[in-house]
Design goal:
Layout lengths: L22 H46 L1 E2 L2 E2 H14 L22 H9 L6
Antiparallel strand pairs: 1-2
Length: about 130
């Protein structure tokens, strides 16, 4: 008897709209096609078929990447924003530092030996 595996975490399942693609994928692929196909048609005579095809692929790849890439449930824009924040906008290594409240007294330190010598000095005037 055939059976279908159902994942335990149903929150990761995304609704498919058309052609088994999510809404985000349809928007990104549609945008890539809306930009890439006219670029190919307009540059085909100037660059030749192969050059125009490579230019079209180079222009369309970022949109395909944005449609398909996902890490830990976050889309590419949010992952990129988090990386930029962590690497460039926020300070890097933040060492633990405290203020030394005893710093003003550091030069006035008197050792135990100096205190005992002051106490043991005989008075010369007696």
């Amino acid at each position: 008897m055939p059976y279908v595996n159902v994942p335990n975490d149903l929150s990761k399942i995304k609704t498919k709209i058309a052609f088994n693609l999510t809404r985000r994928q349809l928007i990104c692929f549609g945008g890539a096609a809306a930009v890439g196909i006219p670029v190919y048609l307009l540059t085909r005579h100037a660059l030749g078929g192969t050059g125009a095809m490579f230019l079209m692929i180079a222009i369309m790849l970022p949109a395909f990447f944005m449609a398909m890439y996902e890490r830990d449930g976050l889309p590419f824009e949010k992952v990129a924003r988090n990386i930029i924040r962590a690497k460039f906008l926020r300070p890097g290594v933040r060492p633990y530092q405290t203020q030394n409240i005893y710093a003003p007294f550091a030069g006035k330190e008197v050792t135990l030996e100096q205190k005992t010598q002051e106490v043991k000095k005989p008075d010369a005037g007696r």
